[in-house]
Automatic annotation (TrEMBL):
It is a multi-pass membrane protein. InterPro entries: GtrA_CellWall_Glycosyl (IPR051401), GtrA_DPMS_TM (IPR007267). The chain crosses the membrane at residues 7-28, 40-58, 70-90, 96-117. This is Putative membrane protein. Belongs to the GtrA family. It comes from Novosphingobium resinovorum. Keywords: Membrane, Transmembrane, Transmembrane helix. It is found in: Membrane. GO terms for biological process: polysaccharide biosynthetic process. Its main location: membrane. GO terms for cellular component: plasma membrane. Residues 9-123 form the GtrA/DPMS transmembrane domain.
């Protein structure tokens, strides 16, 4: 699969993941669950959804899931989120505190890191089978 097609699929998975995450938050808030638990549950569901869809559809990995593959995915998620926070901190220092510009830049860095690390570290061809 081409890099462009994989990136497009990754983006579509992200959009779907966002919709699912918001639905989980909405449902839990309606059930009286607080903001923090609803947010945590949403991220939990989102990480699982992201793993399955990116593995099978974006990067077309087949076969059984190895525990090392899951560990790599969670590591990539954490590193990408760290890059997000780093960019957000930088943007705040540049005068973009409480700004959609700062948040947008942070989201772009997160998405780029998550895609590239997923493609080359988590779901690289033949890697999951090892």
């Amino acid at each position: 699969m081409t890099l462009t097609m994989a990136a497009l699929r990754f983006g579509l998975v992200g959009v779907l993941n966002t919709i699912v995450g918001l639905a989980v938050i909405w449902a839990l808030l309606r059930l009286g669950v607080g903001d923090y638990p609803a947010n945590a549950c949403s991220y939990g569901v989102g990480v699982c959804c992201s793993f399955v869809l990116n593995r099978t559809w974006t990067f077309e990995v087949r076969g059984p899931v190895a525990s090392t593959e899951v560990a790599r995915f969670l590591t990539v998620f954490a590193l990408s989120y760290g890059a997000n926070l780093g960019m957000l901190t930088l943007m705040r220092g540049l005068g973009f505190a409480q700004s959609l510009i700062g948040q947008g830049a942070a989201m772009a860095v997160y998405s780029a890191c998550f895609f590239l690390l997923s493609r080359h570290f988590v779901f690289a061809p033949g890697r999951a089978a090892r």
